[in-house]
Amino acid sequence: MTPAQPHHTAELRAAAKHQLGRRSFLTATSAAAALAFSVGLPGTAHAAEADARRIGADPFTLGVASGDPGPSSVVLWTRLAPSPYEPGSGLPRSRYTVRWELAHDARFTRIVRRGSATAHPEFDHSVHVDVTGLDADRVYHYRFRAGNWISPVGRTRTAPARRARISELKLAAVSCQAYHDGYFTAYRHLADEDLDVVLHLGDYLYEYAVTATGGARAYTDRRLPAHYNRETVTLEDYRLRYGLYKSDPDLMAAHAAHPFVVTWDDHETENNYAGEIPENDVPPEEFLLRRAAAYRAYWENQPLRTPQRPTGPDMRLYRRLQFGRLAQFDVLDTRQYRSDQAYGDKAHVPGPESEDPSRTMLGAAQERWLTDGWQASGATWNVVPQQVNFSQRRLDLNVPAKVGMDAWDGYPAARERFLDGAEAAGVENLLVLTGDVHVAYAYDIKRDWDTPGARVVGTEIVATSVSSGKDGAERPATWETYTRANPHLKFYDGRRGYVTVTLDERQARADFRTLDVVTRPGGSLSTAASFVTAAGEPGLRQV
């Protein structure tokens, strides 16, 4: 689909075009400020302060969220939006004071921290509070106040102390939530799980049009505004789309129940973009403006700290979290720095174009950061939340077989560097968590994919989609081909849902949770399969 003509200003287009050949210097130039949009940054636009007591309708329609838990800190998030489906969300371009409270109990009789933050119009009245000085490995409850309005109560949890020995860590991995493909029922069930943290592996948002009846949701009790029935391109487009997605009650319930660690894939910006290269045939400077809009709206609507705040079309999203001595999480960004997909991004047999050793998935800086982090890791499990299929996935039974060019199969030299770095660092328990493909997979990771019985060096767990792909099927049309062509593929299920992973010193256990339906509300949840891999002895075994 060709995107609608964007309404970026001529000045922004000129700034982006001027800087295109000097991208390595972009964040240090005046063009960075221009690409941060004419709305500017707080302190430069001098928005007047308004009295929050005059907000006439509930401003907490998008709920609350927390994220990126550390041993002594956690990020709290909300956004003031009395009318989330309208441009500006029903508020004037004024700043508001928002108070927050953090307590040991849900009734707030034992308050631990409280303070205030400013909801700036430049950030679409979003609030990001980095609460510090907390106890490690402890559950807290939080809420916000704006004038006389009180938000829903959220529950969060800090990480264990860096050197702590903990008996168990339970996480969930989710991905791919196309609003127009179905209900977010998976999140309603996820909210009821006993979890330490949720990892969102990308495609939190889709840029595609949503009809007045919500696409496959087929609403009969409401009509969505016409501005949703177009592809997102501008900052206002992305902000409005987040208003739609984050107003979903099931998604709000999951955010209120657990801290999230988020990373993006492609659809938060545009399908299958690669670095500065768009999917569609538009001028590169035009795409940088779109990317800047998407990145800014992403930060505004996620529980992320200030260091993740974008500067124009650049945003440092890869980061590291640690949960005692048990687990280190190296959260990757496989979109912003990658080489363009080989062979026109069509399924293709491996060849000179895809096997070029200069091709990168992560970029040189992120590769070094990852391997340096492994070298310093003392964790039992080194977990890598990332976006696209890591293990080899042959798409047919031919020799050689075609593989996907958007996944790591299209960047085999980068995958080898990844595995070289893990081996050189002595990583014994490598666990890659993946989204993107709208199905659940469980893989044994190998260095030699072609030799039966070759050594297993890690595990990949692929979380199916929350709703993308509609209801799906237990055995999709490709099930027999993929399972025969890929002996290291131990599980394949095409239904919607999520996966939980329980880590302890002895093993990692993955439980694949699936739904019978998402195109109508109320889908029931079941466990499709469970697998374990032993610490120090990689290799999946069904239980």
Describe the strand arrangement of the main beta sheet, using strand numbers: 12-13-14-15-17-16-19-18
Strand content: 15-25%
Cα-to-Cα separation, first versus last residue: 44 Å
Radius of gyration (Å): 23 Å
The pLDDT mean sits at 93
Ranges with pLDDT <50 over ≥5 residues?
Answer: 21-33, 35-39
* Shape by Cα distribution: globular
- Measured as a percent range, the helix fraction is 10-25%
Structural class: alpha+beta
Please work out how many helical segments DSSP would assign: 9
State the major sheet: 8 strands, mixed
Number of strands: 23
List keywords for this structure.
single chain, 543 residues, alpha+beta, 8-stranded mixed β-sheet, 7-stranded mixed β-sheet, 23 strands, 25% strand, globular, Phospholipid_Metab_Enz, Alkaline phosphatase D family protein, Metallo-depent_PP-like, PhoD-like_MPP
What would you note in describing this structure?
This protein is an alpha+beta fold and 543 residues long. The chain is 17% helix and 25% strand. The chain has helices spanning 10-19, 30-35, 185-191, 235-246, 249-257, 284-300, 364-376, 412-424, 479-485; strands at 64-67, 74-79, 96-103, 111-119, 126-131, 139-146, 149-150, 154-157, 169-174, 197-200, 260-262, 319-323, 327-331, 381-385, 430-434, 440-446, 456-462, 472-473, 489-495, 497-503, 507-515, 525-534, 537-542. β9 (169-174), α3 and β10 form a beta-alpha-beta unit. α7 (364-376) packs parallel to α8 (412-424). It starts with 9 loop residues before the first helix and ends with a strand.
